[in-house]
Amino acid sequence: MTMTTRYAALLRGINVGGHKKVPMARLRTVLTELGHGDVTTYLQSGNAAFTNASGADEDVLAEELEKAIERHFGFRVDCLVRGGPYLRAVADACPFPAAGLEARQLHVTYFSEPVTPDRFAGLDPAAFLPEEFRLGDRALYLYAPEGLGRSKLAEALARPALTKGVIATTRNWNTVVKLVEMTRD
To answer: One matching Pfam family, short form (predicted)?
Structure first.
């Protein structure tokens, strides 16, 4: 019997302001053509879940998806692929009281590789209070009481100097929880 694993694909920067349009129905087709099963999508912002029995690691699956998107749509999109257990662990490790916050106040930025506190050493956390961030396993948790759109801390964290060399993509808490549900075996 072949063991299948449930994954989420997180596409960065699609369907924003009319740029890099990737219809979810076509994304499901691309994932199916790559040999993935039980493909579902969530919202229009590049969230998909699928099963894979190949045993390929997350980075290989992400690279295959990036190449397939470029072939199908004619532009490059950074992708992260994460397994269900990882997504559950990130949600469970949230250092903020998620149950007591509105989804727009809490976000997770997923990174392509581990990031260390020294990457953010030049940032003065006190200058952004009451906004706060904490690092996790290839993730950054952001508490922004007024939401992401008004967050000065989110703007600072997105500076190229802080994200250099890594793929980073952010999801609000509702999406974080939905990705956990979508990848549950």
So the answer is: DUF1697
**Preceding amide of 130 cis, omega within 30:** yes
The residues near 8 (Cβ < 8 Å, ≥ 6 apart) are: 47, 48, 49, 81, 82, 84, 87, 179, 182, 183
Do 109 and 139 meet the contact criterion of CB atoms below 8 Å apart? Answer: yes
Which whole-number Å values give the CA distances from 48 to 9, 18, 59, 167, in the listed order?
Answer: 5, 20, 16, 17
Domains and CATH numbers, the chain: 5-86 (3.30.70.1280), 87-182 (3.30.70)
Q: Which residues of 125-156 are buried (b: 16+ CB within 10 A; e: fewer)?
A: eeebeebebebbebbbbbbbeeebeebebbeb
Tens digit of each residue's pLDDT (9 = 90 or more) over 157-182: 988 888 899 999 999 999 999 999 99
Contact call for residues 105 and 145 (beta carbons, < 8 A): yes
CB of 104 closer than 8 Å to CB of 125: no
pTM for the whole thing?
Answer: 0.93
Q: How far is Cα 83 from Cα 58, in angstroms, rounded to an integer? A: 8
**Between the CA of residue 36 and those of 33, 60, 89, what are the distances in Å?**
7, 13, 23
